[in-house]
Amino acid sequence: MMSQAVISFRGVTKRFGPRVAVEDVDFDLVEGTTLGIVGESGSGKTTCVRLAVGLEHPTSGAVLFHGGHYPRTRRRLKDIRRRIGLVQQDPYDSLDPRMTIGQVVAEPLRIHGAKRRLPERAAAALAAAGLADAPLDSFPSAYSGGGRQRIAIARALVLEPEVLLCDEPTASLDVSVQAQIVNLLLELRASRSLSMIFVSHDLDLIKRVATELVVMYAGRVVESGPAEVVVATPRHPYTAGLMASIPGDDPGRRKLIGQRTAGPGATELTDERLNRDACVYAPRCYKAQEVCRTNAPLLEPSTSGVAARCFFPEDAPASVVGAQRITAADPDHVPASET
């Protein structure tokens, strides 16, 4: 029996005024898997999380939960939100310092109308997050960054959700604590059969966690597919650059950093200056040619199951693949053999 998609994005675009946060995004979070979303700041990762939990509504396209559209009314949306837990990036900001940790963790129970056994359920959630001995009447200020993030994880678990959304949950933590939080999340995924979206700008971290991977740049998905395959053989130049930038002892990989991330005259444009009728990565790409600056490539799958939004993907001769992508992206293009 095939696993079903829990959360699906179908051609999702979200605009904030003139600014495009995400554009034409498609992906599925399959039941029992972890979908990793990676990209630099401003790529649209957090907007995808906010759309997935119903905090934002798409400008166009659809976000689906078990195949059904997210309701617009707060009351009906509440039924979906109780099945989705959210762990935010910075526990110093996401926890109210005026509330005890018992109150913090039990808050979702109160919001969703639970009245019985609130302290017991809060204590059980804290124990699951590795804080079995934490006094419920203590305050977040008594805990380190790692401890506070465990409190935030406990709050996300207290309603026993089926989906856990993790928006850069280790970004504000020390390196030594990051591994502990990641291991905790992996243990919770296994013990509770959770489906998870894990957002990060750190590809080295996310490749340990994700089963499927989505790479975003300037609001678009530029590559997606099985995490192991994407990491081993990235097809988009941006993904290859991310892989090359992971610290390591391989001098060949380090040499690729400059090649993959910047071409001659490369520049990083603001959202307002990006040509969204073309490849948004072209101003920074070492492979960019005229077609990249005038046409928008499609997100096309390969035989490996990895889809890349690129006229000249990394695993194929540029001349051959470029000709195929030009034809697909520009319906008015006529191959030379037909003229």
Describe, in plain words, how this protein is organized in 3D.
The protein is an alpha/beta fold. It contains 13 helices and 12 strands. The N and C termini lie far apart (50 Å). The chain has helices spanning 45-53, 74-81, 91-94, 101-111, 118-128, 145-157, 175-192, 203-209, 227-232, 237-244, 251-261, 290-294, 318-329, and strands at 5-16, 19-30, 34-38, 60-65, 68-69, 84-87, 163-167, 195-200, 212-217, 220-226, 299-301, 307-309. It folds into 2 domains: 5-221, P-loop containing nucleotide triphosphate hydrolases (Rossmann fold), CATH 3.40.50; 248-332, no CATH class.
Which ranges are low-confidence, i.e. pLDDT below 50, for 5 or more consecutive residues? 262-269, 316-339
What's the average pLDDT? 86
Residues in helix, %: 25-40%
CATH topology of the largest domain: Rossmann fold
Just give the CATH class of the largest domain: Alpha Beta
CATH architectural group of the largest domain? 3-Layer(aba) Sandwich
Shape, per Cα inertia axes: globular
When the domains are counted, the total is: 2
Largest sheet: 8 strands, mixed
Q: How much is the radius of gyration in Å? A: 22 Å
Question: Helix/strand/pairing class, anyone?
Answer: alpha/beta
Strand content: 15-25%
The beta-strand count equals 12
In the CATH hierarchy, what is the superfamily of the largest domain? P-loop containing nucleotide triphosphate hydrolases
Distance between the termini: 50 Å
**Discrete helix count:** 13
